[in-house]
Amino acid sequence: MAITRQVITSLQRDGTDMLGTKTLAVKIIDESIVSGSLLTVESNHFCVLKSRGAVLNVYETGQYALTTPDKPIMGSIAQGFFGGASPWVFEVIYINRSKLLVRSQGVATSAEMAEMAYQVDYYIHVDSKEAALDLITHLPFNGYQIDVSEVADYAGPAIEQAINQIVQVTKMENINEHINEIRESVKAHLTDFLRVYGIMLNDLKVLIMPKDERMRELISLQAIGLTPLEAVRYYLALRMADKGLVSAPNAAAGVPFQIGGQPQGFYPVGAETGMQSGS
Question: pLDDT for 192-205, tens place per residue?
Answer without folding.
Answer: 999 999 999 998 99
